[in-house]
Amino acid sequence: MELETKHLTLIPLTARRLELWLTDLPALEQELGLRYEGEPLTGPLRSIFAGQLAPCRAHPEQLLWHTVWLLAHRGKHLVVGAADFKAPPCAQGRVELGYGLGPAHRGQGYMTEAVAAMTLWALSQPGVRAVTAETGRGNTASQRVLTRCGFTLCRRGSSLWWEKRAQP
């Protein structure tokens, strides 16, 4: 299953492709026929995504909640970024969305398209009542993406928490 937006195809990675993304990016690029220009996979980001491999393998029926979705620009045959759900819906029906773009692709509306599509998809799934996202206090670009996608600020702390609820 893939999601389509005006400019993007959102491609959820299988466990095997997620492993390739982490260990052999050129092989994944060749397999997908896409060049990767997303956010660099270094430091804590690499550790976060590496931690998703085990749940992807252990729960293939919940792959879409555990894996990374690559944001492929259809006209340019390249990956501009990635997004993910941190886990399947919790008991309260919430899922958390995370995302990032390659520096060269910021400010062009791609993330707004991707967040809107993934949020719409998530809220259409059984048991999902809300999508949440966390931003840094100074990350105004990400905050604008969430606002444009209908999220509202629901909690302040060392970071900001946003939420979009399903329509009753």
Short description:
By secondary structure, the protein is α+β, with helices and mostly antiparallel strands. The protein has helices spanning 15-23, 25-32, 43-50, 53-58, 63-66, 110-123, 140-148; strands at residues 3-4, 8-12, 35-36, 68-73, 78-85, 94-101, 130-136, 152-156, 159-165.
Helix/strand layout:
Layout: E1 3-4, E2 8-12, H1 15-23, H2 25-32, E3 35-36, H3 43-50, H4 53-58, H5 63-66, E4 68-73, E5 78-85, E6 94-101, H6 110-123, E7 130-136, H7 140-148, E8 152-156, E9 159-165
Parallel strand pairs: 3-5, 6-7
Antiparallel strand pairs: 1-2, 2-4, 4-5, 5-6, 7-9, 8-9
Question: How is this structure best described in words?
Answer:
With 168 residues, this protein is an alpha+beta fold. It has 7 helices and 9 strands; from the N terminus they run E-E-H-H-E-H-H-H-E-E-E-H-E-H-E-E. The model has no long low-confidence stretch (mean pLDDT 95). Helix 1 (15-23) packs across helix 2. Helix content is 35%, strand content 30%. It starts with a strand and ends with a strand. The longest helix has 14 residues, at 110-123.
Task: Output the keywords.
168 residues; alpha+beta; nine-stranded mixed sheet; 7 helices
Number of strands: 9
Distance between the termini: 26 Å
Coarse structural class: alpha+beta
The radius of gyration is: 15 Å
Number of helical elements: 7
What profile does the largest beta sheet have?
A: 9 strands, mixed
Write the H/E string, N to C.
EEHHEHHHEEEHEHEE
Low-pLDDT stretches are: none
Mean pLDDT: 95
Beta-strand portion reads 25-35%
Shape: globular
Specify the helix fraction band: 25-40%
